[in-house]
From TrEMBL:
Name assigned to this protein: Glycoside hydrolase family 127 protein
This protein's UniProt keywords: Hydrolase, Signal
Protein's UniProt keywords contain Hydrolase: yes
Cross-referenced InterPro entries: 6-hairpin_glycosidase_sf (IPR008928), Beta-AFase-like_GH127_cat (IPR012878), Beta-AFase-like_GH127_middle (IPR049046), Big_4 (IPR011081), ConA-like_dom_sf (IPR013320)
Amino acid sequence: MKSIFKNLTLLLIIWLSFGMTNHAHAQDGDQILDGIGETALIARYTFKGNIRDWSRNNFHLNFQGSSIKYEEDEKFGEVLALSGVTNDYLTIPSDAIADMESMSISTWIYPRSKQAGQTLFEFGKNPKNKLAVSPLGLMEDGVFHASLQSEEKQTQVKAIGLPINKWSHIAIVINIPAKSYAIYINNKLAGESKELSIELDQIFDQDDNEKNLLNIGKSFDPALPNLNALLHDFRFYRIALSENQVNSIFENAAKGTSQEGTRIAKKIDELPTFPASHPQLYNEYLIEVPDIEVETSIGNLPRLPSMIEGKYKGQLNGPKVKVIWPADRDNNAVLQVGTYTITGKVPGTSFAPIAKVVVKEPKDISNPIRRLTSFALNQVTLQTDKDGTETKFIENRDKFITTLAETDPDSFLYMFRNAFGQPQPSTAKPLGVWDSQETKLRGHATGHYLTAIAQAYAGSSYDKELQAIFFRKMDYMVNTLYDLAQLSGNKHPDHPTFESDPTAIPYGPGKSKFDSDLSQEGIRTDFWNWGKGYISAYPPDQFIMLEQGANYGGQQHQVWAPYYTLHKILAGLIDIYEVTGNKKALDVAIGMSDWVYTRLSQIPNETLVNMWSTYIAGEYGGMNESMAKLYRITANENYMMTAKLFDNVRMFFGDEQHSHGLAKNVDTFRSLHANQHIPQIVGSIEMYRASSEPEYFQIADNFWYKAVNDYMYSIGGVAGARNPANAECFIAEPSTLFENGFSTGGQNETCATYNMLKLTNELFLFDQRAELMDYYERGLYNHILASVAKDNPGNTYHVPLRPASIKHFGNPRMTGFTCCNGTAIESSTKLQNAIYFKSIDNKELYINLFVASTLDWTEQNFSIEQSTSFPKEDQTLLTVKGNGKLDIKIRVPSWATKGFKVSINGKLQKLESKPGTYLTISRKWKTGDTIKLEMPFQFHLDPVMDQQNIASLFYGPILLAAQEPEARTDWRKLSLDASDISSNIETNGNPLEFVIDGVLFKPFYDSYERHSVYLDFNLK
Ligand SMILES: [Zn+2]
């Protein structure tokens, strides 16, 4: 078995190195259908005897009539048959319209009547704002009509009407940036308008999904007839399908090959291109890029500097030069002592700097020590700006805390009670989205919720009433979960036989195999057979099926990341234990961890390796993190062993022999799903903390450097690939964000950035490199703070950065959570957590972020009041309360290139303050001492690594977005002065608002309308 596996791995590596664009082992399942990534798909109805949504979203249709009919068809097998009679139509759940950039519908239709006015589908918030498609004509002329209308405007597209008693494929493509509305019939463009000026948010109610109606087979107008037709494979996309994509869907269906033939994503939907040999931005002025020399030790790929100091023409003081180095897939180059060279490239130029790599015998390296620790959330309180206005931090915190306080814990317990067959309290309402009855991820929101209410409790000590509310919620949640967990694998009065051994769980009653059926009728609730300690919002089958090789998908033989969901639940329970000491919370976590240990410790290594390499099904969040934490809390070795059972061997170590992998600085994560893997890295650093095994530190440290230098968008997000075609994946090759990134439908999955910040925070406690906190600040201000709706806690999933994008916010009332809605309630209840750190020996205080706040360092009888309107001003004042000796370490941000002045008690200090370092002030402090920090903001451009003219504009740490009047497909062009870009930039009187060439720029975190984060800059 082992050797077969090795050969397969070898074959795979060979295959990959021949330039294939996808990781087969990572991309199984329903990820890519007809060349289109699943993140683009809202819903898919195949109508094979049911009206279920086959995408992961579970937007199952509702049939409005009395009995639904299917017919056996020669071409497609079982198909849906709509009769045209009253109420014989379907509705898509209204939640489905969230987060749409554009939209497309693809379906096969077999009309059975010529009657005019039949509606294929009609979507909208009311009869005046809607999208309607009538393929058989509105009048007797039989012309195919498609329209989009708002109260003010209307766009009509016409095509030749469909023939009856014959199958036709139609695709309706609404491309908002391109202002086009197209009808494709049988793979041919049959009608198009290029003057579409209506936005989707005029058609749909984005704040209140329930107001939207999504009908298939019926118009909103009761006078119009219902559809009399057969339907097959109806798909709803949140992107504009390209011609190629329409072609793939049509051709594959015609060939009967379905998706299989095109699982490898084609590169589609190209952005504007630029000549590869044309130097852009500062590179146009480059005259020299020096060669470099780096050292490494045997086995470890060198860490090559991403930026090198270059020489520019004349007096030009340009930035460091981005060099793209080839990225090996193994460590063969460094297996012996010696030297070799690597040739890099500078995009758009012929500069080819050489890195001489010296490979040496391994040195004895001392293990990094965790010298610092965070303050508890109740020790740091956010304060208003100097003039009393609320900061963005306070605004966002309060949106979340207020809404969290109003949530009903019974909603978050609903699916747990459902799984255990227990009655619901009369007022209990289930959550929607990924926690609905049949969604295989149900319970995940509950885990995030436990963490969020624990943090909200800890962080709201400024309001005792609010704190009491969160305390009661925690207590109620934990007591209920505890009582349910006690039922598992125990004798029950009604069920004398039971199974307490987690490895001996039988099939569900009346079933002949394990399945993931969570429907009201199909779910098993025989908790007495689930093994001792079991807790989840679904029965144990998904865990067992994953061991048996189940992949990801919506069908009953498939699963959706059972350990991912479990990690959220365990993390939440452990957080509540750590904040309040609630012993029952710890007991529930221990019981389930024992269950996991018992099962996984009996599974062969090969099986585990395959499980954790399975796309999404094997996504386990940070199970390794929770297990390592539990080991620290309990000292029970089993949990450390369990943490190691979650090693993602291929990514961490390359193979089972631990030949290379991230531990040896090999990039093994290109093209993988970002948020599947980042939490595993967070787990790795936690495992290092618990075990002191240096490989786990190296994995985290190497990953961070690569993620930030080779994969990052300017807002701090790292996910969003056009190749492979998945908005949630890392790009196929490092440092090719322009070539392979900027996926349609958005990039920058927000939960991935939540996890990047968590990783960064933890790494900094070991290694006080300022670049870590530079990244933290970037991601916090420009993604996390920017991901929340203006007036409520609605928040982003993907954050699109293509030209003139708009943010979409979901879950404003906390009633239906995606992954990112889950991490959002965590992010915004701990916004204060990284402003200050202290050394574990209490001798040093770190000032990392310039945020109006108070630090109450109770153990040291010391407090700091930070008074500032940052970033609306570029200075801050720290006032000390307390007496004694203390080293205060202050971050000098890398963007502070115009100087960083420190004054103590009004006196300017002579201190070295190099951007991108920490400076130290050692003294005996006394109450009333003040430290004033002045750090004039500068404008700077942050280019995409492989296309330098496509860049973002920053002012100090703040990303500025160009406000756009309407959607667009190309990058907005702007020229700036090469010697001083600020000379073209005017202020408009408002803080952090600027005008360039008539275009208004505002902080990205304050941009709620269409905006461009990346522009096409030219330097004159
Ligand atoms: Zn997410």
